[in-house]
């Protein structure tokens, strides 16, 4: 091939390759929500993905446009090396997955269930004003589920299980272990929000198919201490915070708030699964090291919400409304409006509040036998009345 031909080919390829690099830049910036949210980036680690994209682009363009000569080989090697480094670091930069140590995460199940246990004289579990139309005398399905839904399935058992034959069919082992029990066969009906991707994968690995029957609605809420002057937050701001772009309350309008202490729940828990739903396909920032060990101390999200740090209460967290307002309330915590819509009962019922999410009775495969009887009763008018008496909203049909 002649030198003239090589020059012609190079002159054609250079702008094409450059255009490909810039198209990739735009794609990545749009894919990870930076294109329209550059002003929301307020910390060094949050800007690292941008820096790596820029590094890759500059190094790539220099390789393309700087005429290759033997004496420039070290330069070319360095540019290629920077491109490789930027690609290698990019996934971790999206989640700030650089740290080891104590994380800002609430890992325990806060709240107790004994006061909602079925068939206790002083139980808080809801009751119908009349006898239920069915009664299961034996072979009672074993129930387990999320902590926030224990009052629901306890009330169901109390309404339609025969007390004389009841033993311990209503359990609470937490969302993660309860779902595993459903898949492994020790639980017949599991009550929770939609399973996470990893839970579906676990069921698939065991050759099991999870069948979901929606039985009611509950609000997924974001909360802060009442001392926080912010009352409303946008969904985009939530995405910016939990994707690591925004780290400081000042970016949201609270100048004195300092760094946001953003709590997370464990993977597989009901509320963490809902956070993943809110985030869509954006990666969630890995829980970061706590600025002070006292923040982690109580291992209870509702107590952690009002922790003080540097003279303010900078926490942000999330939960289900019934749990946070009835089962384990903190009187110094308030719920935030989302995009100007408060999580009131009316807004949840009429669908105005965006994250009024279904919760489900889950079985392995379609429900059969007494499990089907239980679930059919829950979605009947009697069962839906009990859902409302328990403090939740009826399912959407």
Provide a concise account of the structure shown.
This protein is of the alpha/beta class and 397 residues long. The protein is built from 13 helices and 10 strands. The strands form 2 sheets. Strands 1, 2, 3, 5, 6, 7, 9 and 10 form an 8-stranded mixed beta sheet that branches. The chain has a two-stranded parallel ribbon with strand order 4-8.
Keywords:
397 residues
Q: Can you describe what's shown?
A:
This protein has 13 helices and ten strands. The model has no long low-confidence stretch (mean pLDDT 89). Helix 1 packs antiparallel against helix 2. It is elongated. The strands form two sheets. Strands 1, 2, 3, 5, 6, 7, 9 and 10 form an eight-stranded mixed beta sheet that branches. Helix content is 40%, strand content 12%. The chain is of the alpha/beta class.
Give the secondary structure arrangement, pairings included.
Blueprint: H1 3-31, H2 44-65, H3 73-95, E1 143-145, H4 150-160, H5 175-184, E2 189-192, H6 197-205, E3 210-225, E4 232-233, H7 235-242, E5 261-262, H8 270-279, H9 301-304, E6 315-320, H10 321-327, E7 333-335, E8 337-338, H11 345-349, E9 356-364, H12 369-378, H13 381-389, E10 393-394
Parallel strand pairs: 1-2, 4-8, 5-6
Antiparallel strand pairs: 2-9, 3-6, 3-7, 3-9, 3-10
Helix pairs in contact: 1-2, 2-3
Share of helix, binned: 25-40%
Helical region count?
13
Q: What percent of residues are in strands?
A: 5-15%
Uncertain spans: none
Overall mean pLDDT score? 89
Question: Biggest β-sheet: count, sense, barrel?
Answer: 8 strands, mixed
Structural class: alpha/beta
User: How large is the radius of gyration?
Assistant: 26 Å
* Head-to-tail CA distance between termini: 70 Å
Overall 3D form: elongated
Total strand segments: 10
Give the H and E element order. HHHEHHEHEEHEHHEHEEHEHHE
């Amino acid at each position: 091939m002649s030198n003239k031909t090589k020059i012609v080919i190079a002159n054609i390829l250079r702008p094409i390759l450059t255009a490909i690099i810039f198209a990739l830049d735009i794609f990545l910036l749009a894919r990870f929500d930076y294109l329209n949210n550059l002003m929301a980036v307020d910390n060094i680690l949050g800007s690292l993905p941008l820096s790596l994209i820029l590094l890759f682009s500059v190094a790539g363009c220099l390789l393309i446009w700087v005429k290759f000569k033997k004496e420039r080989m070290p330069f070319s090697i360095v540019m290629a090396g920077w491109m490789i480094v930027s690609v290698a670091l990019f996934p971790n930069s999206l989640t700030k997955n650089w740290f080891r140590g104590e994380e800002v995460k609430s890992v325990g199940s806060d709240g107790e269930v004994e006061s909602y246990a079925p068939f206790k004289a002083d139980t808080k579990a809801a009751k119908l004003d009349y006898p239920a139309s069915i009664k299961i005398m034996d072979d009672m399905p074993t129930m387990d589920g999320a902590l926030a839904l224990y009052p629901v399935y306890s009330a169901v058992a109390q309404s339609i299980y025969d007390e004389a034959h009841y033993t311990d069919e209503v359990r609470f082992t937490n969302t993660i272990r309860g779902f595993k029990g459903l898949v492994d066969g020790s639980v017949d009906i599991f009550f929770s929000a939609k399973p996470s991707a990893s839970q579906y994968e676990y069921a698939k690995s065991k050759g099991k198919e999870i069948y979901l029957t929606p039985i009611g609605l509950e609000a997924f809420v974001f909360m802060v201490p009442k001392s926080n002057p912010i009352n409303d937050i946008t969904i985009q701001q939530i995405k910016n915070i939990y994707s690591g772009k925004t780290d400081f309350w000042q970016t949201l309008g609270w100048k004195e708030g300092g760094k946001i202490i953003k709590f997370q729940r464990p993977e597989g828990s009901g509320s963490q699964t809902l956070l993943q739903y809110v985030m869509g396909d954006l990666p969630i920032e890995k829980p970061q090291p706590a600025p002070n060990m006292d923040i982690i101390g109580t291992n209870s999200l509702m107590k952690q919400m009002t922790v003080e740090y540097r003279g303010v209460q900078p926490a942000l967290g999330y939960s289900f409304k019934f749990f946070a307002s009835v089962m384990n309330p903190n009187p110094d915590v308030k719920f935030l409006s989302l995009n100007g819509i408060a999580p009131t009962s009316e807004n949840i019922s009429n669908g105005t509040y965006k994250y009024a999410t279904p919760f489900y009775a889950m079985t392995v495969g379609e429900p059969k036998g007494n499990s089907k009887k239980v679930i059919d009763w829950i979605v009947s008018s009697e069962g839906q009345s009990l859902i409302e008496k328990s403090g939740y909203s009826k399912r959407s049909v």
